[in-house]
Each structure stands twice: as C-alpha cells, then as structure tokens.
Batch of 2 targets.
Target 1
Amino acid sequence: MTVALFTLGGTIAMAGTGSGGVVSRLTGADLTAAVPGLAGIPLDVRDVEAVPSAALAYRQILDLVDAAGAAVADGAAGVVVTQGTDTLEETAFLADLVWPHPEPLVFTGAMRNPTLAGPDGPANLLAAARVAAAPVARDLGVLVAFNDEIHAARFVRKTHSTSTATFASPNAGPLGHVIEGAVRLLTRPPRHAPLPPVDSDRLAATRVALHTVTLDDDPALLDALAPGLDGLVVAGFGVGHVPPDFAPALGALAARMPVVLASRAGAGSVLRDTYGAVGSETDLRRRGLVCGGLLDPYKAKVLLRMLLAGGAERAAVDAAFARHG
Ligand code: ASP
C-alpha cells in the first residue's frame, strides 16, 4: 500500500540561502526524512516543482492531477501534494473539480518553515499521508490535511496569514480530524461529477477577472478591466450588493460575458431575492448576473475559468453554479 507524494515547493520545503530569506529548495526526500512516523507508510516521491505557490498555474495543477491519476491507476492508495499555502485553497479546489478517482488526493503545506522553532510541515505531511492511505477517506474528492484537521477542498479557506491553524471551512467545518494518528471522519459530503478535461491552449486563452467592490468604488475600473475578458467574478458586499452606479455597468458586461456574483464577506452565501435596491442581489440577477451561492470569490473564479475554457454556454454556466454554489 503505497502513497504517491508530489512536491511543488512552498514554505514546507523552504531553507535558507545564506544571502536573504528562505526559498523553496528541499526535495521530497528531505521532507520525508524529517518525519520518522512516515516510516510505516511506503511513499513514492516525485519532485515536480520547487516554487512559492504564487508561481503556480492551472496547467501545472491539471498536469499534476493527471500524474496523480496515473499513480492511483498503478496501485497507489492515495496521493499527497505538498505546496505553498497561499494558493492552496485555489489549487485544491481546481483539482477537486476534475479529480475523478475514489482514492484521496490530499493537499498540505506548512506555515512555519523548517528553519523556525516548531515547524508544522512534518506533522502536516504525516497527517496528509495518513489521510491519503486511509480507506475511510476514499470517495471524498480532494482533501486538505492541515493542523490535524481534514477539510474538503470545495469548502476550505486560508483564513490567517501566519497561524498554523490557518485552514478552515467557515461554511461547513472540517470533515474530520487526525487523532492519535487515526483518521476520524465526522461527515461525508456528496461529490460532484468531475468537469471534462480542458484544452491547454483554450485554457491559456481564457481570461477571467475578479473585482472586489469597495466603499465608494469607481465603475470606470470595470471599463478598464473588460476588454479581452471572457468572464468576470464580482465580490460584492455582504449578501451580494454593489454601489448603485455599478449595477448598470455590470448589467452591460453581463450581456457580453458571464458575470458571477459572490460575497467578499468570507463566509455565507450571496442571496437571490431578498433585497430590492439598485445594486442589490435581486437587481443584479435581473440584470443577468449569475448567483455564486456559497462559493467564495476565488473558487467562483476557478470554476468560471474552467467552464469557459471547456466551452460552456450561458445555460451550462448557470447550471454549474447552481450545482457547486
Ligand atoms: N508564500 C508561501 C507559499 O505559498 C507560503 C506558504 O507556503 O505557506 O509558497
């Protein structure tokens, strides 16, 4: 029973250069050597990248999903991916949208790099390997194991810039915990059918932007953003509200491309038909915006880009957000 380990870099793999800050340069062999508890779990280690997670792109994650799929087809019980935490909520969600296998694909990383006191990477890697090897973690899609908690990729958020307890699922809570080394699942959300594969060139050419509205925001910013865009996510106030003079501008954009309404609040859903003012969720839906539901703006952007890269028409975009949001 082998677990495949793919390393992409991030703080978990960082070490000093002697001439400045830490950079990603530890290999999978270095990472696993720091975790004696891993001895009982045979690992097939593949070093893919050694980069800060801000440098990752969709194509690398989709290629990684393919390689992880090949690993489970070859008999791996599950797969662990180590990477930087900054973009992990997006990469894990992207992987979850396309991961078709029952085996667990588990993302993890670290908040304290290995040069600091109490680095969390070794414990996170051990927990992730235990989850990847656990039969009870099958059929849950892509997971995030961090701080001895197990989160569904579709719910998890990075909620703190430095805390080792940064990953949380504000709308759902963790799916489970790793307790005394055992994987304990508390709840099993149903999975969605995976999205079809997308063409690399089409993905690279698909441009989706995210605009977060702010107090006294300037709608002219949308005009600057719009040319060349295929889709837009708007992170509105609260339940999905924007300043009144944004409403016609967003309506005009929604006539040309899918514009998805999400909330900048950090948790909770945008509403559909409670408020009636200009710029409210009801007004924006009437003007053609798509309701993002419970999806946070970052996940909404990932889903919209994948849908558009896959050639989804407006009805398919609506249906996908109704399903995932
Ligand atoms: N900046 C780092 C990264 O995302 C942070 C981390 O790994 O936690 O690569």
Target 2
Amino acid sequence: MALWSGRFEEGAAPVTQEFGASLPVDKALYRQDIAGSKAHAAMLAAQGIISKEDAAAIRDGLEGIEEDITAGKLVFDIADEDIHMAVESELTRRVGEAGARLHTGRSRNDQAVTDTRLAAKALAKRLMHANLGLRCALLDAAAEAGDTVLPGMTHLQHAQPVLFAHHLLAYVWMLTRDFARMRAAFDAADASPLGAAALAGTSYPLDRHMTAEELGFAQVIENSLDAVSDRDFLLDLEYACAVCAMHLSRLGEEIVLWSSQEFGFITLSDAFSTGSSIMPQKKNPDFAELIRGKCGRVVGDLVQLLVTMKGLPLAYNKDMQEDKEGALDAARTVEQSLTVMAGMVSTWTVNADRMRAAMDRGHLAATDVADYLVKHGMPFREAHAVVGHLVLEAEKRSCDISELPIEVFKAASDLFGRDITRALDLDAIVAARTTEGGTAPAAVEAQFRRARARYLVDESSMALLSAVIDF
Ligand code: ARG
C-alpha cells in the first residue's frame, strides 16, 4: 500500500507501478534525501512541533538507513515509488510512530526539489574540479609548446601561421567561460525550497532559515509556488554542460584530425588510444571521437528538460519527475569527458616537425605579401589582387608562393624589392602579429600569464567551495 493510499478504494493498476516510479533514478539521491529529512526533523523539534525524543529517534533511524543503503544492505521496493517514500516507510518500520511524524509540514514536492538542488550543487563542484584539471593540462601543453608553429586555418584551409600554444590557449579560454557557467549553476541551485510544502507553505511554525542553514543553502526561496516548480537551476547546469560538451567536441575533432596520417601533428599515447579487432596496424583516437559524440546526448538532456518544462502550469506537476535523469547524465558525461580529455592532452606527443612541414603548403604568407605592397603605397584591394595572381602562378608551378623566384614578384609589381624574402618568412610573420591577443610569441606569453592567473583565481574559489561539505 502506498503511503498516500488513504482516499483510494482500489490499488493502482500494476502497469502504472514501474511507469510512475522515479525510484530507479532518484535512489542515487538517498544521501541528499536523508540529510534533508534530518534537517527537517531537527527543525521540527527546535520549533516544538515534534518532541526531542521523536527527533532523536528519527535521526538515529535515518543514520542507520543511510549506512545500510551505502553498504548495499537495503533493497528498494519499486512499490515505494520514489526515494522519499522508500526512506520514510523504512524509517517507520524501524522507529515506529516517530517516523510517521517526520513528514509534518513537508511535501514530497519541496522535498524532491531540495534533494535535487543539493545534488546539483555537488555535481557543479565536480564539474568545476574536472574543468580545472583540463585547463591545467592545456596550460602545461601550451607552456611546453614554446615557439612551435602550425598552419592556422579558416574553413579548414591553411590561412596564416600561428603558435601551437596560441591555438591551445583558445581552448583554455573556452573552458574558463565554462567554469563561470558551472559556478553560476552552483549559485542558482544554492537556495532552499524546504518549507514550501506542497505549494502554499504550511500552517506549522517552520523555521525555513534553520533548515536552509543546516543544509548549507545560501538563502531560502522567496515564493513557495516558485520553490516547488522551478527547475531553472537544472537547466543552468545542463546548459553549462552542453556548452562545455560542445567545446570538448571541437577539441575532440581537432585531435582526431591531428592524429591522422594526413596531419600527423600529434601522436596519442597508447593509454588513450585503442586498436582494431581486425586490422592489426590500427591505433584509433576512440576517446577523442567519443568525446565528440557525447555532445549529442548532453545537448539532448538540455533540450529534454526545456521541452518538459514548457507550458507547465504552476505549481508542481508530475512531468517534473523527468528532471533528474538527464541532469545526472549530463553532469556525469561532461565530468568524464573533461577527465579523459585531460589525460589525452597530458600524454600526447607533439610532432613539431610535422607542423612545421605543413607550413610549406597553402601560401600562408599571402596576406603578409599583400601587406608588404600596402606598406609600399599600394591600396589594399589592389594588393590583394596582385597577390592573388602570384598565388595562381605558384599553383600553376605546383609550389608555394614563398618559392616563387624574385623575378616573378617583380613582374607582378615593381614595388617588390629583394627584402620581400622577409615578408615570406613564416617565423617573422608570426612574430609580427603583436596585437594584444595575437599570435606573436610575446603576445602569447602575456596571454598565457593572464589565462594562468584566471586559472589560479578559479582554483582558489574552488578550494573555498571544496571546504563546504556536500550532501
Ligand atoms: N517523485 C517525485 C519527483 O521526483 C516527487 C513526488 C512529487 N509529489 C507528488 N505528489 N507526486 O518529482
């Protein structure tokens, strides 16, 4: 018999039991559920709503249940529907009447979302931690890359030479923004719904601030209807996950390309590669591919909850029970992806010679040759056309623009002098890009220092959060 069966004459149809239950998903939240119940019971006693003896019996009973669940000794019964009723009915079996007083002034509606908020905070922290791990690996790789250059691309076509460190730092900045989104998701979850009860608050003299403080929430939610029906905090978490997964999919794709025979820019370690069951020679970048692929499910998790929430009237609706599975999945998937990616980056071998060799193709100096003409007085648009013809000539000769004889340059424009070789020198081209945020070694060094400073700030804010216990 369900705990709510009083007003029913017949039992529920057997087909609805599994369908209606959230226990298979929310059993993962047993610690949060028990912490919430302990805080609620302590507050009920402090307010004189239940006796101190009952509160102590409830606390001891809940602690025993937590131990038994952790030890795998307590087998859940799907008839209990969700973790809240599973814990409460077990408590009542163990401590009798006191257990039956626990739900005074509380509803599963505020209880469920309290558990979920506690879980969301813990998940956000794990994501932030994993985010820092990958940033650290990328910063190390950027430091190690030194002045290694590779062809920068647009449209996946050779464009202009860039420092490999510069390329890696672009990902560090994406992850820096991801960290801020994860932190924002933590803050969004950091408010207590307890005391909202079913939807309207209760007539018992609850102390909402006491339970909030006990559970480590920064504040209480202002409106009881909003408290039980808001799932924005999970959307924030899933959005932070989705954007991060998208960033990781881009890096995953680059790793797949870079480790191919055609590029050969990096060699993945054996520890982060796989073989083929039929082709003995294969060394595949499976994990980079999988990270690229996992983005689909994480974006799916976000879209699922957005669509579930759309059009729901206030306050709680059973639809909302569909909120937890995707959020848990998105957070776990992105945390794992970040960790695997960090391992891949910190163990790859960079083939600087292959990057250098790739610079011979694609006329990477073309923009700078046009700039040379501009510096000698030619309007840029005209210079663009002159260099376009030089590229065409180089293509006809199957060589790079930098390999054309000086006579060909002179024939194209009499502004070209012997010093054109300097405009064709790829290291000089890189060194000239001194714009703040540009690819010149000194600019990249300054950028590296700023990225590292941001990393250190985030690392210390993480240390503060880590000091706070999770439920
Ligand atoms: N299991 C539900 C959930 O996860 C909580 C129960 C909400 N209350 C209710 N009357 N159905 O959302």
